[in-house]
Design a protein that fits this description.
Helix Hairpins; alpha+beta; 3 domains; 447 residues; 8 helices; 12 strands; single chain; 18% strand
Length: 447
Amino acid sequence: MTSIRRWLLGWLIAALAVSALTAGYGIFHTAREEAGELFDYELRTVAESLPANIRSTETVLQSKPDFEGLSEDRLFIEVWGQAGGSVYKSLGGIDLPRFPAGLRTIERDEYHWRVYGIQRGNRFIQIAQPISVREDLALRMGLRTLAPLALFIPIIIAIVLFVVGRGLAPLADISRALTQRSFDSLEPLRLASGTPVEIKPLVDALNDLLHRLDVASQTQRTFVADAAHELRSPLTALKLQLQSGERDGSLVGNKQTFQRIEGRLNRLIHLVHQLLTLAREEAQMGARVQPVGLRRLCERVVADISLLAEAKQIDLGLECSPAAQLDETFKADVEPAGIEILLNNLIDNAIRYTPQGGKVDVILRRDGDAISIAVSDSGPGIPDEERSRVFDRFYRSAGTKEQGSGLGLAIVLKIAQRHHAELDMRNNADRPGLRVTLSGLRPSVNV
């Protein structure tokens, strides 16, 4: 995936590097030309300053003290007399032919020389200098000129990094705002005062999408709630009429047939009730939390559902860790109605799938600043490959014989998400059964 930040930084730093190289080459080329002009002037000056009677190195040093600053490897001086023979050489081991008067560049013995010749009276003076001397001087001048630029390159790169970071900050702010939102928050994004105008089309498009999603979600929730509400009363009335007709004899039939019909009606009524509960949970945009004693709430839920457990001879109990007598130990900021629905669904599922004579435990635990509620049963558990799908709506494990709507765990997940809590489901390690844990509940601040 392409990164805008890396793309901008790559091109800007590459452009900076190319510009620096181009500037370096230009500076070196300019310094080379200036060094060439300077040394050409030096060649002419030296040639015109030589005495007419020069015959040896000692004569030069005695008559021209200005030559003390000139090293012998920089200049090669040769003088020819009137007869055409060489009368003076400043360096030995160098043999350059005599060239016509003027400036020129020649190649001799794989070396390039800059040569200047001048006729003075009956003598011809020729001054030669290696081109490498000029190149070295041009390089030193270029490096001295580029040294301040090299010091500024890290500063320029830091400025580029800062500017690119500030330029992309609004995108990071939008991403952070969307990440921090709850899964059911579809409110439009608000632009900060300093947001660039280039970001506004993106924010407008996101807000339009959020609005359409909100409308579609609201329409779905309204339909489910209305349908469930309209179906609940007729189904309940139908069940009552069926029971009344069976008692007074107006409906004649096999008793098993009536039981099957009543079972189907009970399943439909349970499904409608779960649909209505799910619609209500989805309609709530945020949890209206308040300090609640979770121990008393769990005791009430266990007491309400104990009759269902007794009908299957299931041992249903509540465990608290630590075993504190004060309810303040397990006081948390939660939505009491939502947690009660969550517990009812978890315990109801545990009782449904636990065989007769089994055991279901509700475990309330306080560990530092975290409170968790777990429901553990002694049923068959859930295969690992199906554990990630059991929270889907209307999903039921293959081969299950228990009646249900497939919405109980979906409602549980919705309530857990609204409380920003974690829901963990795993099979018991030491014994058969399943354990569902709601963790991450926040203790009340006044505890």
